[in-house]
Amino acid sequence: MIVKADKPVGLCSDHAGYELKSIIEGYLMSQDIKTRDFGTNSTESCDYPDYAHPAAEAVEKGEVYPCIAMCGTGNGISMTLNKHQGVRAALCWTREIAELARQHNDANVLVLPARFIAPEEALAIVDVFLNTPFEGGRHQRRIDKIAVK
Ligand code: RB5
């Protein structure tokens, strides 16, 4: 389990991801995993960057680890999160992609496409993401080349 005892798992979404975020929050709580919710807090239409930027800043400061984010497609919130140098947000719609996002990319944010994934599958992806370690080695070298100086 990559969850750290002293750090909550971050959660953020826009309106399109709100219901899935609530399901995931309940699931994590049932597993005794602490969470910090950056919103949004309803299905009222909103703008995903307003929630993604604070969550990304908390990841960069080490206040949360990892983070789970979602919007309708997962694309807008991924684009926003990945503007932050310390964030590696991976859009995952299968368990295998989530596994590889951890093994090869050391992803610190799991992004889910809330309008295109069943809740049961999303929870299975969350489980894989939280339980897969980074492989390091050649993948660390590649990650070290991602940042724009
Ligand atoms: C909201 O309608 C939708 O555009 C948003 O959730 C997301 O899919 C954007 O990338």
| Helical percentage | 40-55%
Percentage of β-strand residues: 5-15%
User: Which parts are unreliable, with pLDDT below 50 for 5 consecutive residues or more?
Assistant: none
> What is the count of β-strands?
5
Order of helices and strands: EHEHEHEHEHH
Order of strands, widest sheet: 2-1-3-5-4
Q: Termini separation (Å)?
A: 32 Å
Instruction: Give the radius of gyration.
Output: 14 Å
List the helices and strands and how they pair.
Elements: E1 9-13, H1 18-30, E2 35-37, H2 49-60, E3 67-71, H3 75-81, E4 89-91, H4 95-103, E5 109-113, H5 119-130, H6 138-144
Parallel strand pairs: 1-2, 1-3, 3-5, 4-5
Helix pairs in contact: 1-5, 2-3, 4-5
The protein binds D-ribose.
Describe the structure.
The mean pLDDT is about 95. The protein is of the alpha/beta class. β4 (about 90), α4 (about 95-105) and β5 form a beta-alpha-beta unit. The protein is globular, with a radius of gyration of 14 Å. A five-stranded parallel beta sheet has the order 2-1-3-5-4, sandwiched between helices. The termini are far apart. It has helices at about 20-30, 50-60, 75-80, 95-105, 120-130, 140-145, and strands at about 10-15, 35, 65-70, 90, 110-115. The structure holds D-ribose (RB5). D-ribose binds near residues 14, 16 and 73. D-ribose (RB5) binds near residues 14, 16, 48 and 76.
List keywords for this structure.
6 helices; single chain; 5-stranded parallel β-sheet; 40% helix; globular; 149 residues; alpha/beta
